[in-house]
Amino acid sequence: MDFQWTKKDLLDLYDLSRDEILHILNTAEEFKKVSQRNVKKVPALRGRTVVNLFVEPSTRTRVSFELAEQRLSADIINMNADVSSFRKGETLLDTLKNIQALQADIVVMRHQATGAPNFLARELNMGVVNAGDGAHSHPTQALLDIFTIREKKGRIEGLNVVIVGDILHSRVARSNVWGLLKLGANVTFAGPATLVPREFEKIGVRVCHNLKDALADADVVNLLRIQLERQQRGYFPSLGEYSRFFGIHPETLRYIKRDALIMHPGPINRGVEIDSAVADGPQSVILEQVTNGLAVRMAVLFLVAGCLK
Amino acid sequence: MENNESEHDTMFGADTIAQAIDTMSEAIYGHISDDPPDKVALIGIQAGGVPLAKRISRCIRDRFGRTIDVGALDISMYRDDIGKRKTLPMIRETTIPFDINDKIIILADDVLQSGRSVRAALDALTDFGRPAQIRLAALIDRGQREFPIHADYVGMKVSVGAEWRVCMDWVECSGSDCVFKVKKQ
């Protein structure tokens, strides 16, 4: 019954066992209740210092982490790449070792380079929480997606989860897939052939280039944001064409299950991958994902902090 | 629960425990019998205090016909030793399905020793509201307090050396009621 969390870092869901993922989700359920109380703060990380190092721009993830840290009573330092010493040529490791020398306890990091947090976790005594690295991993986003699905559907095992969009460049899809597969979901990646590589079939993902086929038995539809610059690179002819073939419109809802969840990690491009009527409709859980993200990040920080020596 | 440890001595069995709960329930009822029914609630500290709170509530209902609400409080987020312990405590469910403002809250815990869990529970409770009073019920008081905390209702007092841990099994958790001591490793 008792489960022991032993990791000082959260890098990717690939590294976690099924039980570890479930332990984070169960812990997050209790932290979600904290945010529903009048007093929305607990002293769990009192006296601990968390550094938010966002080398790549981020708004919602950074705000969510920062609020999670505040609700845990941690002290917070926010560092942006623009004003930091990276511009003066200091290496990432030197910057982090300097922060560590100031007795900071945890670094939450977003970086454009794949594996940057994995590298740092080996070199530092501080806890490292990956807030997104390149197209590799975004573990807290995947955890909040899975948390939301479990909360709404009561289970993960046996569900058909379809992730639609730019899988090729998506760390959200790459993290979701490991967590979902470990918990027994059936995962489909859907989108244009240029953005959905067939390689994912090797790990047990169904790859589908026709949206109607992909969504036929879907219990969950998770839409990824189409980055507007992809069009210039020629991955698809136009945003209008992408939207026509892979966007979710009110008409799309007619051929998917009535209780299928519509999810999106945000920020959403209304009228491209999702129409407003769907994004704001009864099947959408997009804002609940945001709420749950806070609980999941509180749980992750609490567990990581508990393993620091 | 602690079967992997070296020494494991049973101190009290089910009958003694039931008798102690009965005595505690009687004492608690004696103090609250004049209060309106919804004025009093029991809150068990996770994990061992929750079965105790439920047993006391059941005992008072069966013997005196009085129903008392029961809640469960996890104190992991309020501990003062996170990072100092070998292992992180597992967060268990907190459910307080009633308003604690202006109520008499009887906190229940299985084993009272240092008083640190109770200190954390007091912090946690005050984040849920402002009770009129908080009282403490402990099935086992083994002394060795590190905080100025005192139980209002005690089932049994025991005297054991600091090298022992006093633990409890409940039927609800592990199939039998039992108080036992294990030597610290």
Tell me the structural class of chain B.
alpha/beta
Indicate the CATH architecture of the largest domain in chain A.
3-Layer(aba) Sandwich
Oligomer: heterodimer
Distance between the termini of chain A: 25 Å
How many strands, which pairing sense, and closed or not: the largest β-sheet of chain A?
5 strands, parallel
User: What is the CATH homology-level superfamily of the largest domain in chain A?
Assistant: Aspartate/ornithine carbamoyltransferase
CATH C-level label of the largest domain in chain A: Alpha Beta
Largest interface, with counts of residues having CB < 8 Å to the other chain, equals:
A-B, 29 and 21 residues
Order of helices and strands of chain A: HEHEHEHEHEHEEHEHHEHH
Overall mean pLDDT of chain A stands at: 94
The CATH topology of the largest domain in chain A corresponds to Rossmann fold
The chain-level mean pLDDT of chain B equals 91
- Largest pleated sheet of chain B: 5 strands, parallel
Walk across the major sheet of chain A and give the strand order: 7-6-5-8-9
Helix content of chain B: 25-40%
How far is it from the N-terminal to the C-terminal residue of chain B, by CA?
15 Å
Radius of gyration of chain B over alpha carbons? 16 Å
Summed up, the domain count of chain B is 1
Instruction: Point out poorly predicted stretches of chain B.
Output: 1-5
Query: Any idea how many domains of chain A?
Result: 2
How does this model look, in words?
The complex is a heterodimer of chains A (309) and B (185). Chain A is an alpha/beta fold and 309 residues long. Chain A has helices spanning 18-34, 60-71, 92-101, 116-123, 139-153, 171-182, 211-215, 229-232, 239-246, 276-279, 286-305, and strands spanning 49-54, 75-80, 106-111, 127-133, 160-164, 186-190, 206-208, 220-223, 261-263. Chain A has a 5-stranded parallel beta sheet. A 4-stranded parallel beta sheet of chain A has the order 2-1-3-4, sandwiched between helices. The longest helix of chain A is centred in the last third of the chain and has 20 residues, at 286-305. Chain A is globular, with a radius of gyration of 19 Å. Chain B has 185 residues and is an alpha/beta fold. Chain B contains 4 helices and 8 strands, in the order E-H-E-H-E-E-H-E-E-E-H-E. The longest helix of chain B is centred in the N-terminal third of the chain and has 19 residues, at 14-32. Chain B is globular. Residues 1-5 of chain B have low confidence and may be disordered. The chains are: A alpha/beta (309), B alpha/beta (185). The interface between A and B is medium-sized, with 29 and 21 residues.
